[in-house]
């Protein structure tokens, strides 16, 4: 079996729960080197994952100059992304970079240029579309668009009521119930974190474009540029995505909920553990296993099962550490798809243009809040031309 050798730069919380376990469990990946500015963090990660034989450094240059490394995974703060892509391009290393790929349009353009000139592959960790629950939802949504199935009891319209263009829309509501106490101040730092539109809603803007599959044409955002906000995104086919991001919520309820209506159906994705489809006769309900399940009790699956486990985990937390429960948001699948793209010289599953689109839309949303105006999404900014 072909394998690639990976270096991980940035051994923080996210890398601890995703990149390290995902690399170590992937048969096509060999972990060749790890880097963090903090020696303490390196020692902690090395101990936790038993990496004493793996090269470790606090200087990222030593990762890029190692001839054995094919792919560098970057999970630092966003502010160093550009300089790390510059190094990857200079040394011919492929790069999997955390979201957001860039903080500004200028940084995105520089990254596109670097990737094009060097011929490396870049993948942005916009993982949600790769989760098993979203993959299935998208398959069913596409099926409904091409061969609609509706409930036998659905009302039949009168003969004088023609089909209207608005009926081809896919309308999406994304509700984010976040808990501000879980944040660190870096999230709000304008240089290193950029606030929750740049740092978090970039995920949902990317997902909305992927699910709806039409060109975004206009954006209107309201609220705060760093915390609570609402974003409305209009698409060329008349679809609308509505993202409501609140930091005033509680993790006693799951953080993410996705609701779509299209072609006479309603699709509901509950925190990647359950997808429900209504409007085709009896409701169809599919459930998905968690990525991490430390409750280890065989209770029901899906949303109800998750909520029951959550209640048990909270009880156990009263006597010490809360067991980890994490839905499958597609990080492992994205890593596997990118590794395959490198080994088989195929396009990146989430390339630099998609990274640039999410940053552009996030920046436009911020501008809309600052000006109080709806703003057009420029087609040439979505289809950037790098000669
Ligand atoms: N895709 C997702 O769903 C998702 C979820 C959470 C976080 N993230 C992203 O992961 C990234 C890291 O987030 P986190 O919560 O782990 O942050 P963190 O602060 O816990 O970890 C960042 C680590 O990077 C290290 N670092 C910073 N600059 C460095 C440099 N120049 N060289 C080497 N190491 C350096 C820091 O010392 C720290 O240990 C962020 O970009 C965040 O947006 C993605």
Summarize the structure.
This protein is an alpha/beta fold and 387 residues long. The protein contains twelve helices and 17 strands.
- Rg estimate, integer Å: 22 Å
Number of domains: 2
Order of helices and strands: EHHEHEHEHEHEHEHEEEEEEEEHEHHEH
CATH superfamily of the largest domain: Dihydrodipicolinate Reductase, domain 2
Major beta-sheet overview? 9 strands, mixed
CATH class group of the largest domain: Alpha Beta
Key phrases:
alpha/beta, Rossmann fold, Dihydrodipicolinate Reductase, domain 2, 2 domains, nine-stranded mixed sheet, six-stranded parallel sheet, 12 helices, binds nicotinamide-adenine-dinucleotide
Strand and helix map with partners:
Blueprint lengths: L3 E6 L3 H5 L1 H6 L4 E7 L3 H11 L5 E3 L3 H4 L6 E4 L6 H11 L2 E4 L7 H14 L3 E3 L7 H15 L23 E8 L17 H18 L3 E8 L5 E7 L4 E7 L9 E7 L2 E6 L3 E5 L5 E4 L2 E4 L8 H16 L7 E3 L3 H13 L8 H20 L3 E2 L2 H4 L5
Parallel strand pairs: 1-2, 1-4, 2-3, 4-5, 5-6, 7-10
Antiparallel strand pairs: 7-11, 8-9, 8-17, 9-10, 11-12, 12-13, 13-14, 15-16
Helix pairs in contact: 5-6, 6-11, 8-11
The site of nicotinamide-adenine-dinucleotide has 23 residues, from helix 1.
Walk me through what this model shows.
The chain is built from twelve helices and 17 strands. The chain folds into two domains: 4-127 and 332-350, NAD(P)-binding Rossmann-like Domain (Rossmann fold); 129-151 and 162-329 and 360-380, Dihydrodipicolinate Reductase, domain 2. The mean pLDDT is 96. The strands form three sheets. A nine-stranded mixed beta sheet has the order 14-13-12-11-7-10-9-8-17. Strands 3-2-1-4-5-6 form a six-stranded parallel beta sheet. Helix 5 (81-91) runs parallel beside helix 6. The chain has 387 residues and is an alpha/beta fold. The longest helix is centred in the C-terminal third of the chain and has 20 residues, at 352-371. The radius of gyration is 22 Å and the shape is globular. The chain binds nicotinamide-adenine-dinucleotide. Nicotinamide-adenine-dinucleotide binds next to helix 1.
């Amino acid at each position: 079996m072909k394998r690639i050798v990976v270096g991980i730069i940035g051994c923080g919380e996210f890398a601890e729960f995703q990149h390290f376990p995902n690399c170590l469990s992937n048969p096509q990946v060999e972990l060749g080197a790890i880097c963090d500015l903090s020696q303490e963090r390196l020692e902690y990660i090395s101990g936790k994952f038993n990496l004493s034989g793996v090269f470790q450094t606090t200087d990222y240059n030593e990762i890029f100059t190692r001839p054995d490394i094919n792919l560098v995974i970057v999970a630092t703060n966003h502010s160093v992304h550009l300089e790390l892509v510059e190094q990857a391009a200079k040394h011919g290393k492929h790069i999997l970079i955390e979201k957001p790929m860039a903080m500004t349009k200028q940084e995105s353009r520089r990254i596109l240029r670097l990737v094009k000139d060097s011929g490396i592959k870049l993948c942005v960790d916009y993982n949600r579309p790769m989760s098993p629950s979203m993959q299935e939802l998208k398959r069913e949504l596409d099926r409904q668009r091409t061969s609609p199935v509706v409930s036998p009891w659905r009302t039949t319209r009168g003969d004088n009521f023609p089909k209207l263009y608005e009926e081809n829309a896919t309308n999406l509501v994304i509700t984010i119930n976040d808990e501000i106490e879980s944040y660190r101040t870096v999230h709000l730092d304008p240089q290193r974190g950029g606030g929750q539109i740049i740092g978090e809603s970039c995920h949902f803007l990317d997902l909305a474009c992927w699910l709806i599959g039409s060109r975004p044409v206009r954006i209107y955002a309201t609220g705060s540029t760093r915390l609570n906000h609402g974003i409305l995104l209009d698409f060329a086919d008349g679809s609308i995505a509505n993202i409501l991001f609140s930091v005033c919520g509680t993790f006693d309820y799951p953080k993410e909920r996705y609701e779509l209506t299209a072609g006479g159906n309603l699709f509901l994705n509950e925190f990647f553990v359950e997808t429900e489809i209504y409007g085709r006769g009896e409701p169809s309900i599919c459930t998905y296993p968690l990525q991490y399940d430390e409750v280890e009790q065989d209770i029901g699956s899906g949303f109800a099962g998750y909520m029951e486990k959550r209640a048990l985990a909270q009880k156990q937390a009263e006597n010490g550490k809360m067991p980890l429960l994490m839905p499958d948001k597609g990080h492992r699948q994205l890593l596997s798809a990118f590794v395959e793209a490198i080994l088989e010289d195929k396009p990146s599953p989430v390339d630099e243009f998609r990274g640039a689109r999410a940053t552009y839309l996030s920046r436009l949303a911020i501008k809309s809040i600052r000006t109080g105006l709806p703003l057009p999404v420029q087609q040439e900014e979505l289809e950037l031309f790098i000669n």
